[in-house]
Specification:
With 255 residues, the protein is of the alpha/beta class. The chain has eight helices and 14 strands. The chain is globular.
Length: 255
């Protein structure tokens, strides 16, 4: 398995529009964070987790030529507003399966009504095949376990991936991981997890909470994502425990 971090930033990205802070003004490319998304490659198949408004830019940067499936964690703008940009993959490879929970699908159909009501005919629409997540499922040769985590007053789908030899999990946009989900997050080769900022936030994990979950779960490696402009990459990296690192845009991980 190979992971590429397309974006590691929060909903406004880093630099944030109009912000003169040291992180937003940094010339370290690891401090420049597009909106969150991860590309997973396994056995020649490519699976995209979330698809932000920055997806076109990210896909061009990574020279993407193929996409085989989409997983959506939840229907917030910074996680789905690149959905229209899957059309070039449709042109080359046909319909694209999209996996999401029932509640996320209800919201996707409202936000992207023009795709799913299909009143317009022609090549101007993404061609997506809906798959409603109801439990464990297989995609791109992987066994995928959906896990429900809390994001303010809503729920977000986290995912555990396994190919029978290696296991990793992706948790974004949450401020609490329920016990039922925690029980399924042990014995991981890699944990990718939300860490928005230093202090408490009503809908996201802050750094102290994130590190507490990592200490409890004991993954062999942990990477922080969905980071805001409080975190300067190199300064943050030096303060983290062994086995924990901030991710950055363009980072590639082999599992």
């Amino acid at each position: 398995m190979r992971l590429t971090f397309l974006g590691t930033g929060t909903s406004v990205g880093v630099p944030m529009i109009g912000c003169p802070c040291a992180v937003c003004a940094s010339d370290d490319p690891r401090d420049q964070r597009l909106r969150t998304g991860v590309l997973l490659e396994h056995d020649g198949k490519f699976l995209q987790i979330d698809i932000s408004a920055d997806f076109r830019q990210q896909a061009l940067r990574e020279k993407m030529t193929r996409l085989d499936a989409l997983l959506i964690t939840h229907c917030h703008a910074d996680h789905v507003f690149g959905l229209d940009d899957v059309r070039p993959f449709n042109f080359k490879h046909g319909p694209l399966p999209l996996y999401a929970s029932a509640s996320t699908w209800r919201q996707l159909r409202r936000v992207f009504y023009y795709i799913f009501e299909r009143e317009h005919v022609g090549g101007g629409l993404p061609h997506l095949v809906p798959h409603e997540i109801e439990g464990e499922f297989d995609a791109c040769g992987l066994r995928i376990t959906p896990l429900s985590v809390i994001h303010g007053k809503g729920e977000v789908t986290a995912f555990r991936f396994s190919d029978g030899r290696r296991d990793w999990a992706f948790i974004t946009d949450c401020n609490r991981i329920p016990d039922e989900a925690l029980a399924k997050l042990h014995d991981l080769d890699l944990l990718v997890i939300d860490a928005l900022q230093f202090g408490p936030h009503p809908t996201h994990l802050h750094l102290e909470q994130t590190l507490a979950y990592i200490a409890h779960l004991q993954p062999r490696r942990a990477l922080l994502t969905h980071m805001g402009h409080q975190f300067k990459y190199e300064e943050l990296r030096r303060t983290l425990p062994d086995g924990v690192e901030p991710a950055y845009d363009g980072l590639k991980i082999e599992l």
